[in-house]
TrEMBL record:
<keyword id="KW-0697">Rotamase</keyword>
<dbReference type="InterPro" id="IPR046357">
    <property type="entry name" value="PPIase_dom_sf"/>
</dbReference>
<keyword id="KW-0143">Chaperone</keyword>
<dbReference type="GO" id="GO:0003755">
    <property type="term" value="F:peptidyl-prolyl cis-trans isomerase activity"/>
</dbReference>
<dbReference type="Pfam" id="PF13624">
    <property type="entry name" value="SurA_N_3"/>
</dbReference>
<feature type="transmembrane region" description="Helical">
    <location>
        <begin position="12"/>
        <end position="34"/>
    </location>
</feature>
<comment type="similarity">
    <text>Belongs to the PpiD chaperone family.</text>
</comment>
<keyword id="KW-0472">Membrane</keyword>
<dbReference type="InterPro" id="IPR000297">
    <property type="entry name" value="PPIase_PpiC"/>
</dbReference>
<feature type="domain" description="PpiC">
    <location>
        <begin position="268"/>
        <end position="366"/>
    </location>
</feature>
<keyword id="KW-0812">Transmembrane</keyword>
<keyword id="KW-1003">Cell membrane</keyword>
<keyword id="KW-1133">Transmembrane helix</keyword>
<keyword id="KW-0997">Cell inner membrane</keyword>
<dbReference type="InterPro" id="IPR052029">
    <property type="entry name" value="PpiD_chaperone"/>
</dbReference>
<dbReference type="InterPro" id="IPR027304">
    <property type="entry name" value="Trigger_fact/SurA_dom_sf"/>
</dbReference>
<dbReference type="Pfam" id="PF13616">
    <property type="entry name" value="Rotamase_3"/>
</dbReference>
Length: 635
């Protein structure tokens, strides 16, 4: 098994999985593992607790992803408490799955090597500039996510280790042609149905709810009516980019800086060259002989561009007479570069030069001597650089003074703000997941809800939230999580009870009507007697979206009718309604010709997902899980 896992971790599926993990991290942001909490965990897996902090981080990550996916429509979606409850539960489920995978990986002794982690970091596009890894960019990105390099490497190692397990399940699946054909035929099967829907809304006028029932429901379900913990925060936001310099950078300052750093504005010598390349990967002696023959033709007056076009194995440059455009030092193979920069005059060509690519003959076609960028062309950039340097220096000076004052006078931020030259800002009373930027980071949240700041009402330490960007916070007001008063939720409970009772009436009515059908009455007769609407689908497909999903799913599970007698069954719908479905005919699809590649992939991926869920359920079956529903109160 271990060998299969290791092999799977090197395949394309593993890379896709890892890419998805890091994409989510880059787009939505994942905070560092900061702070401790005394809150009840959202779940416990074999004794390992998943904290509210972990849940909040993952929930915000998922929320940000959905906001990016749905844009302005997300606000409407988020207004539905049932939908958001499903999102929260989905986040908890994923955290439990991840912990199960982590524990199994540890049990199997799986560990991603330091070299593999390093290689993954170097190859991630989020840390690259111009297609090349940039260490400054890397540090900037992980700092924004409140990671130190060591912590980020361990986070990435954990994700890569989990992906080994997933790829072992998902990366080895395949389907036989006969299985694909049968699957396509089933997917394309159609069914003819008649059905009626007994709507709960049509029965609500028959429902009454007493005050005692409302009170009883409230007493039994108080956990559903928790008002989330809320906090109002005073804070100082110090950002170097927003500072105003006391003195402007003068023209003399810019000119002096230019003169002192003129070496930085030197444009190195450039050369434009063409070449003829002879590939030596198959027969080195023959390649060298061919290159020397071409050199002899050039020495006898042969046209370089024509010979490059007809003989060079570099087909791209050959079409342009061998032209490689402008080159600088440290751009090419060292042997090639030395030969190119040894040529003295335009039109000169080298002897045969060997590189790792084969044998070259190089011609110098143009020279651009070393130049110093003129002051006028760079002074705007220099001024901006000097101003930024001044702001950064002022920022660190203010940060130090601000932090010292906030520590000495710990019961207010006014004095620290005065030293920093900024105003104290205040948030409204909001829950922990709704704090505005720049407070909506794990590091700031950990500080706000730490005992010193939350309970002792002290100023926080200086918290870095970005490059030359820090905040100081203190709690202005804190409202612990509490159960909402009955009066505040009475109408909500009443509406819920009315809906539940009406749903029960709809199901009871459907059961009664279904009993009459079993006794011999036809669906058409019932429709007429009860003044119901008979709906028909002559060719219902599995992908139908105009019919309730519960009806579609049930219709394709029903037994095939025999002797032209419809099969009739009762169905409870997801929205609380009920339905009676009569299956009249089943039409099997005929699959001819080659199956579409995309369809094959979809079927295979469906099998992959099925196997993955079987894998997860097997892990759950052998684990000790404690899944309290405390996460519902964190929204």
């Amino acid at each position: 098994m271990l060998e299969k896992i290791r092999e799977g971790s090197q395949g394309p599926v593993a890379k896709i999985i890892l890419g998805a993990v890091i994409l989510s991290f880059a787009l939505a942001g994942i905070g560092g593992y900061l702070g401790q909490t005394t809150e009840q965990p959202v779940a416990e897996v074999n004794g390992v607790k998943i904290s509210q902090t972990e849940f909040s981080r993952a929930f915000q990550n998922e929320r940000a992803r959905l906001e990016q996916q749905f844009g302005e429509y997300f606000a409407q979606i988020a207004a539905d408490p049932t939908y958001m409850a499903q999102i929260r539960q989905g986040v908890v489920d994923r955290l439990v799955q991840q912990e199960l995978q982590t524990q199994l990986a540890a049990e199997l002794g799986l560990r991603v090597s330091d070299d593999s982690v390093r290689k993954a970091i170097l190859e991630l596009p989020y840390f690259q500039i111009g297609g090349q890894f940039n260490n400054d960019r890397y540090l900037q990105v992980i700092r924004q996510m409140n990671f130190q390099p060591d912590a980020f490497r361990e986070y990435l190692r954990e994700e890569m280790t989990r992906s080994q397990l997933i790829s072992a399940v998902a990366g080895t699946d395949f389907a036989l042609n006969s299985e694909l054909t049968n699957a396509v035929a089933l997917q394309q099967q159609t069914r003819s149905i008649d059905y009626v829907v007994i709507s709960k809304e049509s029965l609500q006028q028959n429902v009454t709810v007493t005050e005692q029932e409302i009170a009883d429901y409230y007493d039994l379900n108080m956990s559903q009516f928790l008002a989330p913990e809320q906090v109002s925060v005073n804070y100082i936001d110090l950002n170097a980019a927003n500072l105003t310099l006391e003195t402007h950078v003068s023209e003399a300052d810019v000119k002096a800086y230019y003169d002192q750093n003129k070496a930085q504005y030197v444009e190195p010598e450039k050369r434009r060259v063409s070449h003829i390349l002879i590939d030596n990967s198959e027969d080195d002696d023959a390649a060298k002989a061919k290159a020397e023959d071409l050199l002899a033709q050039l020495q006898q007056g042969g046209d370089f561009a024509a010979l490059a076009e007809s003989s060079s194995d570099d087909t791209v440059s050959a079409e342009m007479g061998g032209d490689l455009d402008w080159i600088e030092r440290d751009m090419m193979d060292p042997a090639f570069e030395d030969a190119a920069f040894a040529l003295a005059n335009k039109g000169d060509f080298s002897d045969v030069v060997q590189s790792e690519f084969g044998y070259h003959i190089i011609q110098l076609t143009d020279i651009q001597s070393q130049q110093v960028k003129a002051y006028d062309t760079v002074k705007a950039d220099l001024r901006a650089e000097l101003e930024r340097t001044e702001k950064v220096n002022a920022f660190y000076e203010k940060q130090t003074e601000m932090g010292a004052i906030a520590f000495e006078i710990s019961d207010t931020l006014v004095d620290a703000a005065e030293v920093a030259g900024v105003e104290v800002q205040t948030t409204a009373l909001v829950d922990r997941n709704s704090l505005p930027a720049p407070l909506n980071t794990p590091a700031v949240l950990a500080a706000i809800f730490s005992p010193d700041v939350l309970e002792d009402k002290m100023n926080s330490e200086v918290i870095e939230v970005g490059d030359e960007h820090v905040v100081l916070v203190r709690v202005k007001e804190h409202v612990p999580a509490a159960t909402k008063a009955l009066a505040d939720v009475s109408e909500q409970i009443k509406a819920r009870l009315v809906s539940e009772k009406a749903s029960e009436l709809a199901k009871e009515k459907a059961t009664t009507l279904y009993a009459e059908i079993e006794a011999g009455k036809s669906l058409n007769d019932l429709v007429t007697e009860q003044s119901l609407e008979l709906r028909q689908e002559a060719a219902l497909t599995r992908q139908a979206y105009t019919v309730s999903p519960a009806i579609v799913q049930h219709a394709f599970k029903m037994a095939h009718p025999t002797d032209d007698t419809p099969v009739v069954e009762k169905v409870d719908l997801n929205n609380g309604d009920a339905a009676i479905v009569a299956l009249k005919t089943v039409t099997n699809a005929t699959v001819e010709g080659e199956i579409d590649v995309q369809l094959k992939q979809n079927i295979t991926m469906a099998q992959v997902n099925k196997n993955y869920m079987v894998f997860i359920e097997a892990l759950k079956a052998n684990a000790e899980l404690n899944l309290p529903k405390a996460q519902a109160a964190t929204e």
